[in-house]
Amino acid sequence: MVNNNEVSAVIVTYKDRLTRFGFNYLESYFTSHGTRIIVLNREEVQDPQKELVDDLIAIVTSFSGKVYGYRSHKARWIVSHLKKEVNA
Prior knowledge:
Elements (H helix, E strand, L loop, with lengths): L8 E4 L10 H10 L3 E4 L8 H40 L1
Parallel strand pairs: 1-2
């Protein structure tokens, strides 16, 4: 919808509710299509290094959750198949 210039504003409570990292890129994209992002609870301005560290932590947290999720899924799959074999 933003791509078709159908949205004039996007309102979020916190900027990380819109995206975990890369908010500035998304904000630039929206602005180029005439869409404003309104963040209701703005945090204090961070220095670029602190913002980069926060972004990297968010990336690592996101991907580690996926890795552990895959392991958990695999473990559940193995247990369910072992139960089927034992009960067969």
